[in-house]
Design goal:
Rossmann fold, 5 strands, alpha/beta, 5-stranded parallel sheet, 231 residues, globular, 12% strand
């Protein structure tokens, strides 16, 4: 099984990668199209030059890597929908089990702003995520539901994709993984301190000004995905 897990940033995506990596039957890949996205768009992100100089920037070579055989029965690939620039190859994803990990945009905005100021609608990728879901189909799961009931929701997810559940998915060793992208130094601090999924989330953040405008614009896209989510 080749899983393509699509999510925006600050969305439990690294914890989910670590969860699947804890299984003996899975290999994992960490955002392989991130460097091509930065190189193509010219966008300024933390550690931009280090990412481009360390990781493959040719999207066609990344496609080959995403389709290549692995040493384990299954592979889990962490992807972000906004990394797929126009013209980037997408044929590889058609043979994958596509899963769309969502999170309420208020929580995404608050978390993203702690690492990179003044996030925009494009930064949180919810528009691109809905478009990708409509293109590829697949399973939708909400990160808030996973945090509230990790074992229950992971069992439901595994059942939905025809994969036996493994209790190893609930725990992982603290610290980085060898598959982490170089950007882990900036973004993955909380996950590196963790050994499992954090508990249920509290009340939604409240915003004023520009952040509230981003939230208002993002909500319709999130709500259309949330209506299709596993429950």
């Amino acid at each position: 099984m080749r899983i393509a897990m699509w999510s925006g940033p600050r969305n439990l995506s690294t914890a989910m990668m670590y969860s699947f990596a804890a299984r003996a039957d899975f290999s994992v890949m960490d955002e392989p199209f991130y460097a091509p996205y930065l190189a193509t768009t010219g966008i300024d992100h933390p550690m931009r030059e280090a990412i481009i100089s360390t990781h493959e920037t040719d999207p066609n070579k990344v496609e080959e890597a995403c389709s290549a055989p692995v040493d384990t029965p299954h592979i889990y690939m962490k992807h972000m929908p906004h990394h797929m620039c126009p013209g980037f190859p997408m044929g590889w994803a058609e043979s994958c089990v596509n899963i769309h990990l969502i999170r309420h945009p208020a929580r995404v905005i608050a978390s993203y702003a702690a690492k990179h100021e003044n996030p925009t609608l494009a930064d949180i990728a919810v528009v691109e995520q809905l478009a990708l879901y409509e293109k590829l189909g697949g399973i939708v799961i909400d990160s808030t539901d996973i945090r509230a009931d990790p074992e229950g929701m992971l069992r439901k997810l595994c059942d939905a994709i025809g994969l036996p559940f493994d209790t190893a998915m609930l725990r992982w060793p603290a610290g980085p993984r060898p598959e982490d992208g170089i950007w882990a130094r900036h973004w993955y601090g909380a996950v590196h301190r963790s050994t499992g999924f954090a508990g249920a989330e509290g009340d939604l953040p409240v915003f004023e000004g520009a952040a509230s405008e981003v939230l208002e614009a993002a909500l319709p896209y999130y709500e259309r995905l949330a209506a299709r989510a596993l429950s």
